[in-house]
């Protein structure tokens, strides 16, 4: 089952605590995730920790899904980092700032696993 | 040995009250820092040695001189170099970086372009009615957190400046103050606030405009619901804002990165100006990296602008044209130097792919996503831990960061100096 979402990215304390420790599994766990509300989790038919594919017209990425009661229905939060940046809007609309928040996309369950940082960055060097 | 009043060089709060215990030249305990600051001071894994990427695509350890030579050659041969980052280093290193940019005719841009760059644009339009964090601590009886979550990003901000401590005119601390959070998510900051307005994503501009209308006596023009918030809630918030004695509005990337971007800031600044016709109100951006504010200051006093294109022989500033992401998306950059930041982790993937296409030099204490695409890597000392330097707190107060332990790593400033010497010609001022 697919679920349409408005994607926002931002800081979290786990992301911040590992910002100088990016090759660690702690950073991966802090950032390769997508937080959604209970209704959206139910729509997807997933349990916390399952993998989802996040897709927008700018790209797609596989991350783990987590429950966040503070999110309105249809709002997906991905901590800032390489995984979030696979799906954000690179256009700055003439002010230097890419579209890191308010990116329309969808979530769907997947059997694929999230790539770790090294594997992810090697794609950028191809 | 115990070092008191040490300054934390992690976030823009620059807490200056830490006690650090050093044994055998190693920091073994940090008191009063939050999880972010303590983690940094206690240390993470470091880059061991300078490295150059070999023909097989692997980073290979080299001498410092070879790495600096290669870096200098790359920069000398570039037609459109980008010197990017600068948020987590000292003002002294930033100043050297801008000088290097002048010699090379480079674009020098900071991480502000992906955090509070739109704030600078808003401030250029409307000015910044602000106050020091000390004034806010001593006087503010109403604190608004809009599109920010200091409990996660600046964990001690509330306990030091914006909430819990008693102030000179507010002897009961938190009991004297009201907290209001406006956000699209119920964050931890929202959860401990007295009031929370959950607005629809991207509606900041219309909600701010509605508050302005109400405060300026045009409330009848405001519809019943704005951005998912009822008019009654907006009337209530505007009453709180008008009737406080000293209000402080803090904002983060919820405003700078959402739909209207710098126009959100323009509107928030206008709202603050409107409120100052009725009471005292100030506004302060919550700046992330500990010296991103410093880069804006240093670049402005050296070139006249908070980020700059020096390729024309005179400083040129036009965000949206010469900002790092715009240059990368147009695929103009043919070499880059990244100092004290990690654009590969924090730029959209499409920009990162273009960044990785041309030679990239990284100067940083830690391996990160940028290391994975870098061609030359030069490790450095950590400012505020292994070397001293100046940094600007988010409210524009400059503080001298101290050296707490000795290190064999050179400082950013020393490395930049060596590169400057290699790339300068007769007549360059350095
Ligand atoms: S709030 Fe910021 S400056 Fe203060 S200790 Fe935490 S990370 Fe360091």
UniProtKB/TrEMBL annotation, chain A:
Pfam families, A to Z: Molydop_binding
Xref: InterPro entries: Asp_de-COase-like_dom_sf, Formylmethanofuran_DH_dsu, MoPterin_dinucl-bd_dom
Source organism, top-level taxon: Archaea
Domain Molybdopterin dinucleotide-binding, residue spans: 7-103
GO molecular function: molybdopterin cofactor binding; oxidoreductase activity
Protein name in the entry: tRNA CCA-pyrophosphorylase
Species lineage: Archaea, Methanobacteriati, Methanobacteriota, Stenosarchaea group, Methanomicrobia
Automatic annotation (TrEMBL), chain B:
Pfam assignment, any one: Molybdopterin
Keyword Metal-binding: no
Keyword vocabulary terms for this entry: Oxidoreductase
One GO cellular component, as annotated: membrane
The Molybdopterin oxidoreductase domain, residue ranges: 46-408
Gene Ontology terms: biological process: methanogenesis; respiratory electron transport chain
Top-rank lineage group of the source organism: Archaea
Gene3D superfamilies named among the record's database cross-references: 3.40.50.740, Dimethylsulfoxide Reductase, domain 2
GO MF annotation list: formylmethanofuran dehydrogenase activity; NADH dehydrogenase activity
Keyword Metal-binding set for record: no
CDD domains found in the cross-reference section: MopB_FmdB-FwdB
InterPro entries per the UniProt record, alphabetical: Formylmethanofuran_DH_bsu (IPR016457), Mopterin_OxRdtase (IPR006656), Prok_molybdopt-oxidoreductase (IPR050123)
Cross-referenced PANTHER family: FORMATE DEHYDROGENASE H (PTHR43105:SF14), RESPIRATORY NITRATE REDUCTASE (PTHR43105)
Stated name of the protein: Formylmethanofuran dehydrogenase subunit B
Lineage of origin: Archaea, Methanobacteriati, Methanobacteriota, Stenosarchaea group, Methanomicrobia
